[in-house]
């Protein structure tokens, strides 16, 4: 097999694993099993050349921190929700964030994120489709979610709990790839939360590069003061 054929075969296998993850309908057990099996080859499949999501999300976090949050970047509390193996955390660390916490459903992926050494703390077995009531409101300046509001993974409803964990005037930054935007009602959920004075869209990068041929929207959602008081 030539090097090109080998490369194409690897890409096809990666594409199949990605597609398979999209068919899991948010079932926590199936997702955990899928990522348990994928963890070892995940970073090979999602190499930086193909997967722009983590660096774009981290750059957005950096820009929002500089423009609106200010203070010491190293002390800005960031939750990487659905941190996977830590690709976003590594990019955040690269631009000076030092207070990074990770959550993930898969303990196997969470352990790989721990191994990067850039997180203060990483928790596995956290399901973002469920209530996070054991976690205090307004704990983070920013929450980043890359590749998490994705088909078969986390439902747009999950945004409400993430907003609650973010402090007033902090941000939830989320990628939503094209297939998800078309199939799910993420934008409707943003509008619902805006009407309920929970959050307001601050920026959106439409149709940015995400993974190979698939583009994504990158949302920066500002959490409003009122919501946190109401929900504490
Ligand atoms: C496509 S990966 C993205 C990982 C990382 N953010 C990145 O950009 O490389 C999706 C991650 O979301 C996690 N995940 C899937 N469903 C989840 C859920 N309901 N709650 C928390 N994490 C979930 C998976 O375990 C996996 O690590």
Automatic annotation (TrEMBL):
Keywords: Methyltransferase, Transferase. SUPFAM superfamilies: S-adenosyl-L-methionine-dependent methyltransferases. The keyword Protease does not apply. It comes from the Bacteria. Residues 79-173 form the Methyltransferase type domain. Pfam families: Methyltransf_11. InterPro entries: Methyltransf_11, SAM-dependent_MTases_sf. This is Class I SAM-dependent methyltransferase. The lineage of its organism: Bacteria, Pseudomonadati, Pseudomonadota, Alphaproteobacteria, Hyphomicrobiales.
